[in-house]
Amino acid sequence: MFGINIDKEAQRLQAFYDAARSRLGEAAGLHAAVPEVSGWSPAEHLHHAALVNTAVFERMRRWLGGELEGEDGSPNLAGRLVLWLGRLPRGRGRSPAAFQLEGTSDLETLAAAVHQSQEAMDAIIPDLDALRQCTGGQPHPALGVLTAPQWLRFARIHAEHHLTIVRDIDEQQP
Question: Domain for residue 1, yes or no?
Fold first, then answer.
């Protein structure tokens, strides 16, 4: 339906991790929010994206391992739009409580979250062909039931969404 190239999605996700690690190396302004752009700091955006992706990749690992069975269903209207457009609208969605951060994370905690998320992605990359074979879908709290390739696309879209906000914050900082 969406013509998802999971190899390309994985490459773009890797580009997110490369950019996140690069941004961690430039600590200036990492913990400074620019309210005109976002209530979160760049550190909070990167940390949030890493936490969400870790959860997505863990779900995919469990699905591939047979611990989760695919469910019937499909993306809802919001899900179809996000997957088709390849972007999330700014300022519209609210993150589930498990992925909201309490204050800013220190550099060490943030770096560990990004590293853990990268490792979670690396654990499923060898099984990209198996992802194509997963049947059914898994529910997303706002987007409906997503197939494995759709979950991978969502992870990429979500990560790029937060990286774009980080770049917008960086441009507005003195």
Answer: no
**How many domains does one find in the chain?**
1
* DSSP-derived 3-state class of residue 173: coil
Residue range 78-115, pLDDT digits in tens: 999 999 999 998 876 677 666 777 665 788 999 999 99
User: Which pair of tokens denotes residue 35?
Assistant: 């309210």
- What is the distance between the alpha carbons of residues 152 and 140, in angstroms, rounded to a whole number? 12
* The two structure tokens encoding residue 122: 């690396």
Q: For the domain that residue 96 is a member of, what is the CATH number?
A: 1.20.120
- The whole-angstrom separation of Cα 161 and Cα 149 is 18
The two beta strands, 138-140 and 144-146, are: antiparallel
3-class SS at 71? strand
Q: Which of 113-152 are b and which e, b meaning 16 or more Cβ less than 10 Å from the residue's Cβ?
A: bbeebbebbeebeebbeebeebeebbebeebbbbbbbbbb
Take residue 31 and report the two structure tokens written for it: 């913990």
Can you give the pTM of this predicted structure? 0.92
